[in-house]
Amino acid sequence: MQIILKEDIIGLGYKNEIVTVKDGYGRNYLIPFGKAVIASASAKKVLAENLRQQAQKLAKIKEAAEAKAAKIAAIEPIVIATKVSATGTIYGSVNNLHIAEALREQGIEVERKIITLKDVKEVGSYVAKVHLHREVEVEVPFTVVAEGGEEPQQEAEEAAAPVEEAPAAEVAPAEEAAPVVEEEVKEEAPAAEPEEAPAAAEEAPAEPAQEEA
Asked: Where residue 78 sits, what CATH number does that domain have?
C-alpha cells in the first residue's frame, strides 16, 4: 500500500514523502499511531498544495540542515573511551547516544534518533551518519578506544624499570667489599704480637755484656 508520511522515519522516508509499505505495517502501526495516512487521490492533491505553499519554508529548512552539516563535518575527531576486555571486545555497546553526546560537547545539538551506525563490538574506527534532511546527510567518523588508554601503562613500565636495576648495581659491590676488609684486619692483628716479643728478649742480655767489658 502507498502512504504519506507525517513525520521522518529513519530507514523508511521523510515527512510528506509518499512511500510503499506492507499493508500490515501501514494499517497496524504507521496509520494508527499517526505516523502516516493512506495516499489516496484526495490526500495526494492536498499534499501537493501544501508542498507548494511550503516551498520557501522547505528551502530554508534545507539551508539550515546544510549549515549544520558543514559544522559537523568540521568538528574535532570523536574518541569514545569504553571498558574493553583483554581480547579487545568492548563491554556493553557504543550507540547513537554516545555520538549525540560527543557532538553536544562540541556545541552541536543533534537528536539521537536521526543518527545511525552499525554495531560496534570492538575497539577501532567507525562511521556514523546524521540524517539532517531528506537531501542532507553527513558522515561522522569516530574511534573507540580502551578506557584509560595505553599511555599510562607504558609510563608505569618505564618508571618501574630503573627501580629493579638500581639495587643490583649498588648493593652487590658493597656486599663483596665488606668481607675483604674484615679478613685483612684479622690476618694482620695476630702477626704483630710475635715480632715484638723476641725483640725484647734479645735486648735484655745485651746490658750485662757491656758491664763485664
From this structure: 3.10.430.100
Per the structure, how many domains does the chain have? 2
Mean pLDDT value across residues 23-30: 94
210 in any annotated domain = no
- Where would I find the beta strands (DSSP E) of the chain? 2-5, 18-20, 36-38, 78-82, 115-116, 124-133, 136-146
Q: Sign of torsion, CA 112 115 121 122?
A: negative
- Exposed/middle/buried for residue 146 (C-beta within 10 Å: 0-12, 13-18, 19+): middle
The angle, 0 to 180 degrees and rounded to 10, between the axes of the packed helices 55-73 and 41-53 is 70
The reply to whether 14 falls in a domain is: yes
Mean pLDDT of 197-204: 44
The answer to whether position 193 is within a domain reads no
Q: Which domain holds residue 95?
A: 71-146
Q: What is the mean pLDDT of residues 164-171?
A: 48
pLDDT of residue 59: 86
pLDDT of 78-113, one tens digit each? 999 998 888 878 888 899 999 999 999 999 999 999
pLDDT at site 161: 47
Same domain, 78 and 44: no
Tell me the longest C-alpha to C-alpha distance in the chain.
165
